[in-house]
Amino acid sequence: MTEPTSEGYRTYDPDAAHAFPDGPVNSILEFIADDAEIQTFLEAQNVNAVDRMRYNDHGPKHIEIVRNRALCLYDLLKASSVTFNGARQQGLAEADEAVIIALAATLHDVGHVVHRDRHPFYSVPLASDILDRILPEFYDTVDAVRVKGEVLHAILCHHTPVDPLTLEAGVIRVADALDMERGRSRIPYEQGGRGINTLSSQAISRVSLHEGESSPVMVEIAMTNAAGVYQVDNLLKAKLERSMLEDHVRIVAVNTNENREQLVERIEL
């Protein structure tokens, strides 16, 4: 598995050793990076979110963060022998678990090109068309259909009341919430936004993944003031609930501000 930095696991390294067969997912990642249609979608999906609605970034940087966190989270879970069910129940190979996660992380927000509201429901048909084009490059018809179904399931469940039915989908749901560091609400903040979502996001200085002791994964969130608790409790905790990962992921938020009296020093979920 990728060696962690002093700040934990944050970025997926294709060249490192992993707790899962990584050849197929690394090939998919190379394909994605060079695919003009996918890269254009990632740029275009930010127009409605940022330029028109003054919402926070949902473009290439968000996708990069979510995909990195998702693959690191998956790697840590696999290192602890957590059994994934999505690819397995479809009769796919273990290596396809990471492919499903990488594709779902990449395409989960393409529906923003239609509208921010109810975007997962727009992401599904748009991603379906993209998958129809790229999956035959890597799979025969039977496996392509099954991989596609699992990717679309994960996309649908990332931001809707629809509960994930696979751990692969649960990884996407949780990883999406891990993009919460300071500056990720930069645009609404600079536009004068002072709502609790914006202010609490400004309080989060770092999010990192670690091997856990009482659970396979510990998500450590460093925050500079107590406003960050809202972000952790209302975003990440809500995503973790009913994700199928509740027993595998422990969340620890630590107030790192040493310059003033701390109202909240540490919370665990």
From TrEMBL:
Annotated Pfam families: HD (PF01966)
Quick check: keyword Hydrolase in the entry?
A: yes
Q: Which InterPro entries match?
A: HD/PDEase_dom (IPR003607), HD_domain (IPR006674), MJ1020-like (IPR039967)
Gene Ontology terms for molecular function: hydrolase activity
- List, for all copies, the residue spans of the domain called HD: 91-180
UniProtKB keywords: Hydrolase
Q: What is the name of the protein in this document?
A: Metal dependent phosphohydrolase
Q: List the source organism.
A: Halovivax asiaticus JCM 14624
